[in-house]
User: What shape does this take?
Amino acid sequence: MESIFKKKKMSATPFRNEVLAIFNKYNSAIPLSIIEDELKSHNRITLYRTIKIFLEKGIIHEINLNGESSNYALCKEECGDNHNHQHIHFKCSICSQVTCVDIDRFPKITLPNFKIDQLEIQANGLCEKCNN
Amino acid sequence: MESIFKKKKMSATPFRNEVLAIFNKYNSAIPLSIIEDELKSHNRITLYRTIKIFLEKGIIHEINLNGESSNYALCKEECGDNHNHQHIHFKCSICSQVTCVDIDRFPKITLPNFKIDQLEIQANGLCEKCNN
DNA sequence: TTTAAAAATGCAACAATGTTGCAATTAATT
DNA sequence: AATTAATTGCAACATTGTTGCATTTTTAAA
Assistant: This one.
């Protein structure tokens, strides 16, 4: 299996491998603070640049929920250039985890006179684990 | 007509009136930078506190789109404590305006094993004005 | 209308977050 | 192995947001 960095024509550096490994370790979306904690030596500047490049290259996507710092999660293979994921971003009000949840029928929305290119759906409530 | 500040049991200060007037002047959601520009004398600290209180009291709501600073827009009368607006947040890719667009049938989404309390829908594309 | 209590404001100082230029280092290419 | 291209890390800075506290303004009460 080919490295994602080679596929995206990016240099495969130890730092990037470490960040990627952290994303793989988590099943949920994570904020920068978690990545910093997990990194052996965390250089804020390099991390910011790494995140920015991962976003540009479509390795991760950004999730902005109200009143929170950004979260980041790995993109699916199928994710095109416009990050058109067929999932919703779910924030559990108990465990606070942000997860990408696949959904069977992604809603279609039409607005008179508008042209909708992209939809982003966010939900709050109780996640699988906390809703029992 | 009773002042919104009286209704919300808040002091009606000149600063708050000025900020409220700015919100009323715009039909769209606006970032802090626009409010600062419009204010006669803009004290950053007071503005931050004003915005925070407006949010808490349900006078405005926050809109966080990916890769942008927060936007703020007036709440509708019917908006309850949980800011459960029946509208979507639309960002035009040409004019960049963020608007709250009412929608007839707000989609219902169910996820097995999850309990969804609140939905937030964001859309990108061309707005009424730019889509012609 | 004056007074007392409560709330909001503004300054200073700080904390957190994010960016840029540039030299040194590391990775990829030949 | 050598050259080129890209990445890293430091320093310095810019932006964004917060807190304590004294002053001022608003509101409520007499």
Q: What stands out?
A: Residues 11-14, 32, 44-45, 48-49, 69 of chain B lie near DNA strand D (CB under 10 Å from a C1'). Helices of chain B lie at 4-7, 14-25, 32-38, 44-56. The CA atoms of residues 31 and 71 of chain B lie 4 Å apart. The beta strands of chain B are 30-31, 60-63, 71-74, 87-92, 98-102, 115-126.
